[in-house]
Amino acid sequence: MKVCIKCKKEKDKNDFHKNSRSKDGLQIKCKDCFKEYSLKNREQIRLYNKNWRSKNRDRVNLYRRNRSKENPLYKIKTSLCSLTYLATVRPYKKSSKTFRVIGVTHKELMRHLESVNYTDVDLKGDRSKWAVDHIIPLSSADTKEELLSLCKYTNLQPLSIEDNLKKSNN
Ligand SMILES: [Zn+2]
Question: How far is CA 133 from CA 62, 144, 164, in A?
């Protein structure tokens, strides 16, 4: 059991989302409070992120360019992310690179994402509204092998675009 910092109720551990960065591996707010927060602030977060990016376009571009020069993994990471995105959009062959990277077929991947859809993202709805989140972030990898092992379907979960941005901005 764990007490939610927001509603102060004692709840089962399953009522908290996972957070690999915290000591007990769980978020400080319960799922209900988390959901309430993201619904309330959805538009605000979206606008904030959009604003920040357009105000800092040069900085963002420069950062991306430098990152790819300094860190050879950055480029692989970017291509793995787009491959993972595409894997949720359309089927791929068992002989494809996508299959090797993800580890399962498109159908099995979607079934997996549904089974770990803790925040009730509409997986069949607008694809631009959700992202495939790497539960253990790709940024924690030091080698190409580690990167590849983090791209396996077992490390993937669906998150709304907002939650995903929040996670990567933490
Ligand atoms: Zn709560």
Answer: 25, 19, 7
